[in-house]
Design a protein that fits this description.
mainly alpha, 6 helices, 75% helix, 0% strand
Length: 186
């Protein structure tokens, strides 16, 4: 296999392994200790600022353990498809390093990635939004608590990417089958 491709695959493999560990860790820590400069400026920190009226820092200081628990749950539900995708991409890059590029195993991985994108858009992101809204309003008085979820451009993008990956997986399966038939032809 090409040395440049192998080197690139090793680097990407290292990056994705680091992300697989760092993302849930940073997210959880940012929710457990939401009022600090790191959490307030990081993308992975409490991502509910658009839902809170007034000063975000002041609102986060009033968070109790129940708020943080719902926030962590929402963040981890939101991250789950990404983490599963990263684990599958790690498998894909391992296959590439071994020289298995157009294999059935890789086609299956692409299909799984596609289905995770669809699940993310249709299930995990709306559920995460509902948990975030619960994190905000759980301590509100009766009648002011709310659960909210939405469907927007990011959901539509994930659906399109998921459908594309499923089609790519199918094309790879067909290509692999044609390649096997050609190898058997004398």
């Amino acid at each position: 296999m090409d040395n440049k491709l192998t080197t690139l695959c090793w680097r990407m493999l290292l990056l994705f392994r680091i992300l697989l560990i760092a993302l849930p860790l940073i997210t959880t820590i940012s929710w457990l200790f939401p009022v600090n400069d790191f959490s307030m400026t990081m993308y992975f920190g409490p991502t509910i600022g658009h839902s809170i009226n007034g000063d975000l820092k002041d609102a986060l200081q009033k968070f109790q353990w129940s708020n943080k628990a719902f926030g962590i749950a929402g963040a981890l539900v939101s991250l789950l498809p990404l983490l599963m995708g990263l684990s599958k991409i790690i498998q894909l890059f391992k296959n590439y390093i071994q020289g298995n590029i157009f294999s059935l195993a890789n086609a299956k991985i692409y299909g799984i990635l596609g289905y995770w994108c669809l699940l993310s858009a249709l299930l995990f992101q709306p559920l995460s939004d509902a948990l975030y809204s619960a994190a905000i309003s759980i301590n509100y008085p009766a009648g002011q608590k709310y659960i909210a979820f939405g469907f927007g451009n990011t959901n539509l993008t994930a659906i399109i990417c998921g459908a594309f990956l499923i089609i790519v997986a199918h094309v790879m399966r067909v290509g692999h089958k044609i390649n096997e038939e050609q190898e058997l032809t004398i």
